[in-house]
């Protein structure tokens, strides 16, 4: 899929007939999962979503033949759900060509729709250059993205005791930095300081040795975790930020430490040198979960975007 940001926002997403069908199926699943009234969600979201992103969703709604409120609600699934059913295991390691950035996206979905409808999208015409995301038809934000010669970023779910805020949804904040940020340090500053609607763990990698961090976020607070021995790992729990809800556990959070420890051990025993070795770590039985829907490896220094 190719999205030209020079085009009018309503016409940027040229979905094929098959992609329109996929978008309708995905949006129906989101609606059943959330159990929220789309008009209510959209009404709350309208003041905090950028006008061009809103217009993109209007264009998708028109093409798919569904109300724009339904498309908006689907795009805000992560923030609205407060991250209970979304997980991940991700890590980054130094190489001579810059950090390799690997991640599993763990997300329960009805009828395996998220895996079946995975969509790689190339965006051109952005202020800072082209970039790629891994998402789904009808989804205009970013969970995972790489911008060649700039950075790569992925979102892991986490939950704190802070309530949702009337601030930028995380997936649109990531889309914005992919469009606008010129380098690793610029992204780090933005994602560390921008108010966000909900909690998140953000793995950010650049193009130079050591350019990799995990930004631990609540809507109002942030801590930055740095690599050790040329590698960094993240699952679904805070490691630096102190928050409440220690007694709350989903299946994803209950397994977070186990997955973190196993990924760390695998990388310590043999640090991956390429995408194939990263995928081997991601596919280890103690790292990959039954609800893993996407596996990917990025490398901003080379523009690598490999997806399984």
From TrEMBL:
<dbReference type="InterPro" id="IPR047794">
    <property type="entry name" value="C45_proenzyme-like"/>
</dbReference>
<dbReference type="InterPro" id="IPR005079">
    <property type="entry name" value="Peptidase_C45_hydrolase"/>
</dbReference>
<dbReference type="GO" id="GO:0016810">
    <property type="term" value="F:hydrolase activity, acting on carbon-nitrogen (but not peptide) bonds"/>
</dbReference>
<feature type="domain" description="Peptidase C45 hydrolase">
    <location>
        <begin position="94"/>
        <end position="286"/>
    </location>
</feature>
<dbReference type="Pfam" id="PF03417">
    <property type="entry name" value="AAT"/>
</dbReference>
<protein>
    <recommendedName>
        <fullName>Peptidase C45 hydrolase domain-containing protein</fullName>
    </recommendedName>
</protein>
């Amino acid at each position: 899929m190719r999205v030209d940001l020079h085009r009018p926002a309503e016409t940027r997403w040229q979905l094929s007939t098959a992609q329109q069908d996929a978008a309708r199926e995905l949006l129906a699943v989101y609606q059943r999962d959330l159990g929220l009234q789309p008009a209510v969600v959209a009404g709350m979201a309208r003041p905090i979503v950028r006008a061009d992103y809103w217009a993109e969703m209007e264009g998708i709604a028109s093409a798919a033949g569904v109300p724009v409120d339904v498309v908006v609600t689907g795009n805000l699934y992560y923030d609205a759900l407060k991250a209970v059913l979304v997980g991940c295991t991700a890590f980054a390691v130094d190489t001579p060509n810059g950090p390799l950035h690997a991640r599993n996206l763990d997300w329960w979905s009805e009828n395996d729709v998220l895996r079946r409808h995975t969509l790689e999208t190339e965006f051109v015409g952005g202020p800072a250059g082209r970039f790629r995301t891994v998402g789904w038809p009808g989804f205009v934000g970013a969970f995972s993205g790489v911008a060649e010669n700039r950075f790569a970023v992925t979102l892991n779910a986490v939950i704190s005791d802070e309530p949702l805020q009337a601030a930028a949804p995380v997936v649109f904040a990531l889309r914005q930095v992919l469009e606008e940020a010129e380098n690793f340090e610029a992204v780090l500053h933005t994602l560390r300081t921008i108010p966000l609607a909900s909690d998140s763990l953000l793995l950010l990698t650049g193009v130079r040795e050591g350019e990799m961090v995990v930004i631990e976020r609540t809507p109002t607070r942030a801590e930055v975790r740095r690599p050790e021995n040329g590698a960094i790992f993240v699952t679904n729990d805070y490691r630096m930020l102190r928050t409440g809800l220690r007694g709350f556990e989903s299946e994803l959070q209950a397994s977070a430490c186990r997955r973190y420890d196993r990924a760390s051990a695998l990388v310590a025993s043999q640090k991956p040198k390429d995408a194939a070795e990263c995928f081997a770590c991601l596919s280890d039985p103690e790292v990959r979960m039954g609800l893993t829907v996407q596996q990917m490896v990025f490398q901003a220094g080379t523009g690598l975007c490999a997806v399984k």
